[in-house]
Design brief:
The chain has 176 residues and is mainly beta. The chain has two helices and 13 strands; from the N terminus they run ββββαβββββββββα. The strands form three sheets. The protein has a six-stranded antiparallel beta sheet with strand order 1-2-10-7-12-5, with no helix packed on it. One of its GO terms (cellular component) is cytosol.
Length: 176
C-alpha cells in the first residue's frame, strides 16, 4: 500500500500496490503494522457497507463525539463516489478546511479519515456501494454532524442532491 498525505493534516489517500499476473492481481487493502508504521490508527472494530440506489445520493456530514470519535477507512467497491472530509479539530492547522476525493471501484483508492473530521459522500453512479472500516463502534448518543451545504465550508458537490435522509437535512449550521 502507498500512503499519500492530503492537504489536510493527518488525512491520507491509500493506494493499492497490486501484484499482477495472468490471473489478474492481488493486493493488500489493510495491514495493521503498515498503518502503525505511518502513525495512523490501526484499530478496526467494525466494518460497514452502504448501498445507494441512485446517483446524487448524499450521506453526511457525520462524526462521533469523543470518547467515541471514529477513524475511518473508506473505499468504494461498486460504482463511484465523491468523498468529502472536513477537519473539525480546533487545534489543527487545517481547521475548517475540506477536501473531496473521487473514489471508484475502478481506481480502488481509499480515504483515511482521522478522528475529529466530519465525513460524507455523494454517489456519482447508480447502484454504488461503499465499504468502511472504523475504529469505534457506532454510538448513537455520540453522533454529530454538520450540514452538507453549510456556508462555513462551501463544499462544492458535483451533482444536484437526489436523495438524502431527513436527519442529514437537519444538521445544524457550524458555529465553531
Amino acid at each position: 500500500m502507498r500512503f499519500i498525505p492530503t492537504e489536510l493534516k493527518d488525512a491520507h489517500i491509500i493506494e493499492l500496490e497490486p501484484r499482477e499476473d495472468n490471473r489478474g492481481f492481488f493486493a493488500r487493502v489493510w495491514a495493521k503494522d503498515e498503518f502503525a508504521e505511518h502513525g495512523l490508527v490501526d484499530r478496526v472494530v467494525q466494518m460497514n457497507l452502504s448501498y445507494n440506489r441512485v446517483a446524487g445520493t448524499l450521506r453526511g456530514m457525520h462524526f462521533q463525539h469523543a470518547p467515541y470519535a471514529e477513524t475511518k477507512l473508506v473505499r468504494c467497491i461498486r460504482g463511484a463516489i465523491y468523498d468529502v472530509i472536513i477537519d473539525l479539530r480546533p487545534d489543527s492547522p487545517t481547521y475548517k478546511r475540506w477536501i473531496g476525493v473521487k473514489l471508484t471501484a475502478a481506481n480502488r483508492l481509499a480515504l483515511y479519515v482521522p478522528e475529529g473530521f466530519a465525513h460524507g459522500f455523494q454517489t456519482l453512479e447508480d447502484d454504488t456501494e461503499v465499504f468502511y472500516q472504523v475504529s469505534q463502534y457506532y454510538t448513537p448518543s455520540a453522533e454529530g454532524g454538520v450540514r452538507y451545504d453549510d456556508p462555513a465550508f462551501g463544499i462544492e458537490w458535483p451533482l444536484p442532491v437526489t436523495e438524502m435522509s431527513e436527519k442529514d437535512k437537519r444538521w445544524p449550521l457550524f458555529t465553531g
